[in-house]
Amino acid sequence: MRRWEEKESLPVHRQQHDKRGSVYAYRWELDEWRESRRQLMEVENKPAAESSNRRRWSVVGLALLVAVSAGGFWTLRRTQPGKVEYTPSPEAYRAYERARFGDNAGRTQVQAGIKNYQDAIRLDPRFARAWGGLATAHIALTWFGDVPARETMAQAKMEAQKALSLDRHLASAWRVLAFVAHYLDWDQSSAEKQFRKALDLSPREAVAASWFAEFLLDMRRYDEALIYAKLAQDISPRWLEPVTVAGNIHAFSGNPDLAIPEYQRALEIEPNYGLANHFLGRAYLAKGQTAKAIEQLRRSNELLGGVPFSMGDLGYALASSGHRAEAERMLSEMNHKRQAGYYPAFAIAEVELGLGHREAALDWLERASEERHMGYYLPSADPIYDPLRTNPRFLTLMQRMRIGTSSY
Q: Are residues 86 and 144 in the same domain?
């Protein structure tokens, strides 16, 4: 199994328990893996078919076409006016397929994905989709908090720009640039234009629709956000992230009772899906069901691997519900990690806010803004920051981020 996992990107998940570990896979991931193997076989068989076609052309005297086409493993094929589709080498495509990670990927899978995308690019530097995949993987790496967000997003921006230099019609690269414009550059106008560009180029790009929904959520444009979350679900019914995003739109707009069925729908499909577990805990907290919320947030924190946003939300829930001693221990551990190296400031801001230390929370939130890592969602919409909405320091920060405050 490990050989298939390492060499063929078999979507296997491992969870360590006290004495023994468990190994499992999701049915929908296995279905997608089988489909990717089929596509790979098509790509690998393509050079032979193209070689046969070239021989037929040479029979009728087009020797020049043979000379041009036979020089490598790739071809250029026009699919519509102004668009050129690139066929990579089989070796590069195989590395590209190994790089793809699933909806519930942990840091090890994302790091392995980065390595395989880099291998695909080394094998075929003109492979635009590999550059776009690498950019997306660096966005994913941001959420684990191991590397400063400024670094991962700047890297993603460079890779997306390289992808677009090879293929201006690559939707995945446009959505990465949109994400970076939103979170790193705080250029909200450009972010919206680039998300729309991605969707114009590829209306069936579920990731672009889901990311755009989250952008609109950060901008507090909830009705529009729900449209794109539902579009992403329609495009990719088996993908759980947009189901969770729809729940978050309801929860953040003050409707946790509408959010909870969305999270439960995702968890009926996959009980160990970390994000749905996490935001279900947040919804329970919003309803005042603190014991249930803390139990749920502890479970999701374990499933997600103790990433900063799950730690910050758990610390906030503990602190705001009276478990101050445990929250203060978490806060001390976060500060120790930060002193020893890098740890995102936003998680510390959340725990300080839960403890009632509003000025300290604002201090840490301003540091988080400098780091360009302010949580899974921006404070503009996150209900955790409701106690700060009218604070002049908070309003100034939102203005710097070019997010309107008229709806506060």
A: yes
Which among 377, 355, 351, 376 has a CA at the least distance from the CA of 364?
A: 351
Tally of domains in the chain:
2
Q: Could you tell me the pTM of the whole model?
A: 0.80
Which among 117, 143, 169 is the end of a domain?
A: 169
**pLDDT tens-digit map of 345-362:** 999 999 999 999 999 999
Q: Which long-range contacts (CB under 8 A, 24 or more apart) does 210-215 make?
A: 210/239, 210/241, 210/242, 210/245, 211/175, 211/178, 211/179, 212/175, 212/178, 213/242, 213/245, 213/246, 213/249, 214/245, 214/248, 214/377, 215/178, 215/179, 215/182, 215/191
Encoded amino acid at 210, one letter? S
Asked whether residue 139 falls in the same domain as residue 214, the answer is no
Question: Rounded to whole angstroms, how far apart are CA atoms 144 and 286?
Answer: 25
Q: Give percent above pLDDT 90 in the chain.
A: 74
Give the pLDDT confidence of 13-42 residue by residue, as tens digits: 555 444 455 565 655 456 555 655 555 555
Answer yes or no: do 221 and 165 share one domain: no
